Structures are given as structure tokens and as C-alpha cells.
Amino acid sequence: MDDIRSLQFEQILVEEVDNDVLHVTLNRPERRNAVDWALHGEIVSLYTALCGSHELGAVVITGAGRAFCAGGDLEHISRGRTDANVRRAQLAESVRLVREALSVRCPVIAAVNGPAVGLGATIALLADIVVMAESAFLADPHTQVGLVAGDGGTIMWPLLVGPLPGEGVPHARDPNRRESSLRPRPRQPRRR
User: Shortest CA distance to 16 belongs to which of 26, 5, 7?
Assistant: First the structure.
């Protein structure tokens, strides 16, 4: 676990709770933990380090403040709309995030303390176990603007909640209504 302790993050807090449990907090509460380019890179670096760790028993991921993660930071996203090179880099980094998250050997627990939207929902859904606060919800608003579910959502939503009629799909409904979201079934921990 020394390799993880040596990582320097500006927007992620990493704390060893027990000898083999790591507590990770997305730490941009003033932006509801919205993911900009720097935080995206830090999340990928964290997952990469976790993949290389054979000592961890579990990782708990949560968000600072009232939100788990509000998804992509709109300033970050808008740069990809106007610059093709930035967009290609964003897409490549998104693929890398999902691949690294799925390669973590130890169980990952998402402690969803508030809204998990877009990429935030994907980060939660990539975990092996999702524990949600009463006020928390998952949503992927990409479909509300004519896009497919983003950030790995097109893969994770159907796998975890099954094929549902359009009315029941969490990312097709109003993310501001708590009762409109579904809670995913926990996945079985990955085999080591």
C-alpha cells in the first residue's frame, strides 16, 4: 500500500482507515465534486495504483460535502466541444478510467452520500458494492440532451438494472426527483 500512500492528489483525499481498508474522498465540495481534467486524471491514477496493490482488503469511495459527484465539470466538458484534440484526449481518458476501475483487485465500495450524476453515477456503478444515503440518487442526464448515457453508463446501467421500459430507466427520468432513480443491485466482489 506504500505506492498508494506516496501518490500526491490535490482533489482526492486518501486515508488508511484500517491496515487494509482505504477511504477515498472526492474533494471538490464547492463544485459538488464535479470532475474537471485534473480530478479525472487523479481518479485514473488512483485506480491504476489500486490495480497494482495486492495488500488492500477494500476501498471505500465517497464525496466531500453534500454530493457524491455531480458528473463532469461543465467548463471541462465545453472545451471538448470546440477542440477536437481535447475531445479525443477526454474520450481516451474516459476509456482508461473505466478499464482501470474494472481492473481493481480488491472490493470497491461506493458510499454514495448525495447525488451521483453522469460520471458520478458511473463511478458508483463501477464499484462492487453501492451503499446510498436516503437522500442520494443516481442519474445520467446525457439522454435529456439527445446523447447516449455517458462515461460508461451505456454498459453499466443495463448490466446492473436489467432491461427496463424507457419510463423506468434512471438516466431517462428527472434526476431532481429522488423517487425517479433506481438503486443498483450490488455486484459480487471480483475474484482475486
Answer: 5
Q: Which three cell numbers stand for residue 176?
A: 431532481
Q: Which fold has domain 2-180?
A: 2-enoyl-CoA Hydratase; Chain A, domain 1 (3.90.226)
Enter the pTM of the model.
Answer: 0.80
Q: Which of 117, 134, 12, 102 is nearest to 68 (CA)?
A: 117
Residues 6+ positions from 14 with CB-CB distance below 8 Å:
4, 5, 7, 22, 23, 24, 25, 46
Q: CA angle at residue 99 from 98 to 102, to 5 degrees?
A: 85
Contacts of 141 (CB under 8 A, 6+ apart): 71, 117, 118, 171, 175
6-31 residue pLDDT tens: 778 999 999 987 778 999 999 999 99
